[in-house]
Amino acid sequence: MRLSLNVVKQVLEISSLKELRATFDRLGLEVKNVETCVYFDGRSDEIATIETLANRGDHLSQLNIAKELSVALKKNVSELPVVKDEFPIDENLIQCLSPNTISLGICHIRVSPFSLSELKLPSWDLINPDNHPLVALGNYVMKELGQPLHCYSAAKVKTPFRSVEKRIESFYALNGYHYSFPEGTVVIEDSVQPVAVGGIIGSYDSKLDFNEFEIYLESACFNPVHVRKSRLFAKIDSEAGYYFERGVPRTIQELAIRRFLKILELSGISYEVLGYHLVAQPNKTKSLILTKDLLTRDIRVNKVLALATDILSSLGYRVSSDSNQEKFISVEVPEKYEFVIDQPEDLVQEVLRFFDFNSVPKPALQVSFFMPRDNLRYELEQKLCGYLTCNGFKEVITKPFFSPKEAQFLKQLNLAGDLVEVTNNQEAQYAYLKNNNVLPVCRTIALNLNRFVNNPKIFEVGKLFRKNMALEETFLFGGFSVPVNDSREVRAHEDLSKDFLANCVFGCLKIMGLLEKVVFKRGENPLLQFGFEVFLNTWRIASFGAVNPDVLIHYDIMHPVMFFEFSLEPISELLNREGGKYVNQSQISDQPKAFRDLTISLENLIELGNLTRILKDKFDEIELIQVIDRFENKNVTLRFYFQHMTKAFSKSELDELMTKLSSEIENIRVMS
Amino acid sequence: MSQSLLDSFKKDKESLKPDELINKWLGSKGILKDWFQKLKNLSEDQRVEVGKALNLIKQELEELKKGRSLDQIKKRLTLKPRDLTYSYNWNGVGSLHPVTELHKELVEFFSKLGFELVEGPEVETSFNNFEALNIPEYHPARDMQDTFYINPIEVQSNSGTVEIRDVLRTHTTSIQARVLSRGEFPIKVICFGRVYRNETEDPSHQAMFHQFELLWVDKGLGLPELLSLIEEAMKFLFGKDSITRYVPKYYPYTQPSFGVQTGCIICRGSGCPLCNGSGFITVGGAGVVHPKVLQTFGFDANLLAGLAFGLGSSRLAIQRAGLSKLRLLYDGDLRYL
After folding, report:
1. Is 3.40.50.620 the CATH classification of the domain at A94-280?
2. Which of A88, A242, A269, A585 has its CA 20 to 30 A from that of A349?
3. CB–CB of A396 and B332 under 8 A?
């Protein structure tokens, strides 16, 4: 957000935002830059671009930031001028309020025509000069107070207004586009038609024309979750939506209207309030208990409760302490923090923001004598990486995506059947996850050859993703290009390259202690022109060979490329932790894994950990049980991975197993 | 005239080898060139007729030539298998990737402090990536983590069919969820790996980057222990004289939450474009694990506290490697690695 020095100066005496940069940072308001500007009326201003946090809707108000600054700087903050007159109440302005509309205020105003330059705004940086002057003023107040305001043309809407919740198939919005909104969207209607989608955007049919100066000014508060749901459904970005999603306090609707009118008044523009009505849901006061134990867990200083009381009181919290025990304080959360403060831990964060994280006393670090368990796969990876770098290979890290062109190429080779598609937030196809390592190696080698890197030798540790595979697989893979020309040395060089490839693979197998135990077989990978696969009994642990010329031509590579890969997971499973000795592989199944998901009700059920333990004991076929989703703590979805020692499960066998599992869970539920 | 030309071409096609045929007809002193020059002297009818025949022959020859060159390339790229028992050592200088080197150092450092290295899948359940970590579906915090989705699967539940969509993990914190789901404590783990965000790619923003994380759950822990740990780690990474400072941040899975900043390595605190003039750069985020996260996995949040600390290891790696752009890390361009 952009913070104006002139706006802050209305309530707080400061001379520069630049000088306060460190204070802003300390409060969690990261300053990206500060720029100085001079407006058309000769006044100068300083504008700071501040990155606000996703949970701090209150920081979208410049006034709130000024108040926080005043606490940090221990300065007094003055009141923002607003009109104090009584408004003529017109109860016919609003007919009803939907459950997710927290408050709705409508003010019917007739303003004498004026141009934007007649307004006396503290900062011109915060508005869009192309807007109607009244709309621009509404936007200014939104930036100043954090309350979005919306102007309806009085000539185009027919009172009364009402907020309802319904689905809209086609809504013609202010920006000239049509949108549809889901069931339960908050809609503001006049007596004829929808005039706005609550908290998001107004309708084109109620838009204020440049020659109109009689308006219904709306100032409302909506349920943030509801606004976000509707906005994401319609895929629409709006500034008001940004504010409402982060939470607008339920008590500043009238204040915003009064401020709007005050600026008109200060600018010498005459106006008349023809009617005003505000309807709001009952106020909920949030009260939290902040214990001394929780505070001292994070801030180990003397009189920590007094410190918290001081800070929270100065921020506007109502704090009361327990009589004389000094074990906790009771904190009443002001409405402006309604969507920010939810738990006592949030209060600790508030105290720390003003106490300063950097001031927390730090104890000397206690070094543990507990030795952590080794990660075998990582150790294996390190050994192999070390060996390859010693042999001149450079490690690269590339993205595991295939472009549509690469996917098309694999389709031509009938190798695209197991490709996994990746979509983005808008459910549009983004890419495919890689299902083989040969193409990424060739892609990287082609890139390097094009940049005149001679004989690139690369390796990478990465994953392969295949549809219908229970888990992704980790591989160490790599390759190198063979220099060729038309001279007699070519064949010698080719032969040496093959030797080098074999040497690298043998070397890797040797350092794993597997060289004497493996069997080499001719591979059938169509991406390799002569390939070998390395087997440890029935496990395929590696493959290597020269890349098929069709693949090389696809990447415009004019040199032969050698390729190798090691499947790290089976190898690390086969090496036990005592010195990397070979384990009898019959203990581990090499059959494919399959998974099925089951959603169960948690009602009358024993603890989840015990349930999974019982099921694992009872069913040998279960290899792993994973929680993959929870629904409001009532239901839980479990993913069961099945693996047999000697065979692959058929669909009917899996169905049978799932039936048995379901009835077993029901038995457990009855017994418990 | 055209018929005799076609007959002569057919005869040559049968008698000559492809290369000879191409040379005789399509070469710089070939028959076709000669005929094309003669065309202007012919009558209009003859010109049309002979022109068609010449174009037919030329087209056929060019296709033959194209196929020949592809065959030659394939032949050049095709290697014959040979005996692999001969050993030959081809030495050279290799290197690890800057991100791997950084992770290696961090693993070494934290292992000495008793932290165990754990791993997790890159295709993660939405529950482990979001809901378990106190990131509800409709919270603005999800904007920070634009997500890649894997094709959805349908699951039968009591209330009908539910669609579950796995995601490419947006942070390594999902591994923490997996560790917490073991239900045992104390927990002292570190993890690192690739994470994916649906970002518009430019030299400084990539759809894939790396993170490093730490989780420590035990009795009697609090913010001071976390700050001490981070201070040691920062000294290890940036040297004993490095300055570390902490600024409030928001992470849904920790509260209190803060960002870890270190003195800018380019301007040494005087302000430059890299640090936006502040003299400090953010290298990671940390905080005390949110009680809701602990409760999700059945831990008593009144008894235990969890400390979490994460590093954006890609950014750190480019700074240490002296690279200017994040993209250079993931292009595979050996000139920079």
Report:
1. no
2. A242
3. yes
